[in-house]
């Protein structure tokens, strides 16, 4: 056994198996460390196809601020923000076309992760894809634009590690910090579903697959 100095490298004999240990992060939140590692190259190829049809863009908040995270979507609906508010929309406002279909590997990963965390039958209809470069942050927010809040959200982290901020049900609750690294999957359900959360400004680094980027997928049952 060698020391695992290169935590972000993909090694075929990595001791974290496809179904690594589940780790409770908070009441209702389960971390599956490295769960998506083996699928990462396929996911990245699929992300390239999605962004080819529905390009990365920086959305504008209802308050008029440009988000530092670049976003796109796939699935039956996509999360959009503009001066009129936040919503799920079946069409990409940039093109007027429907969003690209959810790639099979996305759906497979999300449903397996949800089942592992106790949410058998999770049927996401939307996937928001977030892209971070060094300095990009996501301020504390709740995800509550989805119709059925009993369904969990499944998040998949790829590329550079991020410091994830996880608070309580009130914005003022001081958030805990956790590192989310390449291949980590988190299932947020139950009492964690409406917790305030965000991402600290991304630190620079050089990831073997993603270079200076981090990409996060969030699977949602939106409609
Ligand atoms: C906890 N994305 O897209 S993923 C988002 O890393 C979002 O891009 C972050 O927050 C990112 O809305 C965090 C982890 C996450 C996602 C959704 C949650 C945690 C959550 C919904 C409820 C509670
Ligand atoms: Fe969120």
UniProtKB/TrEMBL annotation:
The reply to whether Magnesium figures as a keyword in the UniProt entry is: no
Q: What cellular-component terms does GO give this entry?
A: cytoplasm
Query: Could you mention a single GO BP entry for this protein?
Result: DNA repair
Q: Where does substrate bind?
A: 79, 86-88, 145, 171
Q: Which GO terms describe its molecular function?
A: broad specificity oxidative DNA demethylase activity; ferrous iron binding; oxidative RNA demethylase activity
Residues reported to bind 2-oxoglutarate: 130-132, 214-220
Instruction: Please report a single Pfam family linked to this protein.
Output: 2OG-FeII_Oxy_2
- Which sequence ranges form a coiled-coil region, renumbered to this chain? none
Please tell me where Fe cation binds in this chain.
141, 143, 197
- Cite the SUPFAM superfamilies for this sequence: Clavaminate synthase-like
Q: What domain of life does the UniProt record list for this protein's source?
A: Bacteria
Reaction catalysis annotation:
a methylated nucleobase within DNA + 2-oxoglutarate + O2 = a nucleobase within DNA + formaldehyde + succinate + CO2
Q: What keywords does the record list, in alphabetical order?
A: Dioxygenase, DNA damage, DNA repair, Iron, Metal-binding, Oxidoreductase
Write down the NCBIfam families for this protein, in alphabetical order.
Answer: PRK15401.1
Which protein family is named in the record? Answer: Belongs to the alkB family.
Instruction: Write down the PANTHER family for this protein, in alphabetical order.
Output: ALKYLATED DNA REPAIR PROTEIN ALKB-RELATED, NUCLEIC ACID DIOXYGENASE ALKBH1
Known function: Dioxygenase that repairs alkylated DNA and RNA containing 3-methylcytosine or 1-methyladenine by oxidative demethylation. Has highest activity towards 3-methylcytosine. Has lower activity towards alkylated DNA containing ethenoadenine, and no detectable activity towards 1-methylguanine or 3-methylthymine. Accepts double-stranded and single-stranded substrates. Requires molecular oxygen, alpha-ketoglutarate and iron. Provides extensive resistance to alkylating agents such as MMS and DMS (SN2 agents), but not to MMNG and MNU (SN1 agents).
Question: Any idea what this protein is called?
Answer: Alpha-ketoglutarate-dependent dioxygenase AlkB
Tell me what organism the protein belongs to: Cupriavidus yeoncheonensis
């Amino acid at each position: 056994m060698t020391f695992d100095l290169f935590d972000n490298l993909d090694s075929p004999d990595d001791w974290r198996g496809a179904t690594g240990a589940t780790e409770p992060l908070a009441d209702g939140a389960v971390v599956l460390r490295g769960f998506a590692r083996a699928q990462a190259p396929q996911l990245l190829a699929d992300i390239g196809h999605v962004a080819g049809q529905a390009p990365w863009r920086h959305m504008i908040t209802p308050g008029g601020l440009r988000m530092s995270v670049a976003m796109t979507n796939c699935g039956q609906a996509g999360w959009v923000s503009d001066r009129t508010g936040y919503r799920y929309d079946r069409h990409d406002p940039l093109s007027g076309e429907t969003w690209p279909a959810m790639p099979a590997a996305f759906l497979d990963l999300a449903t397996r992760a949800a089942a592992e965390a106790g949410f058998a039958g999770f049927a996401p209809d939307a996937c928001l894809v977030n892209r971070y470069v060094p300095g990009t942050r996501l301020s504390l927010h709740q995800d509550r634009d989805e119709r059925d809040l009993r369904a969990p959200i499944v998040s998949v982290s790829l590329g550079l590690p991020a410091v994830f901020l996880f608070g309580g049900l009130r914005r003022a609750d001081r958030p805990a910090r956790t590192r989310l690294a390449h291949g980590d999957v988190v299932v947020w359900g139950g009492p964690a579903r409406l917790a305030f959360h965000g991402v600290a400004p991304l630190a620079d680094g050089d990831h073997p697959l993603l270079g200076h980027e981090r990409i996060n997928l969030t699977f949602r049952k939106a409609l």
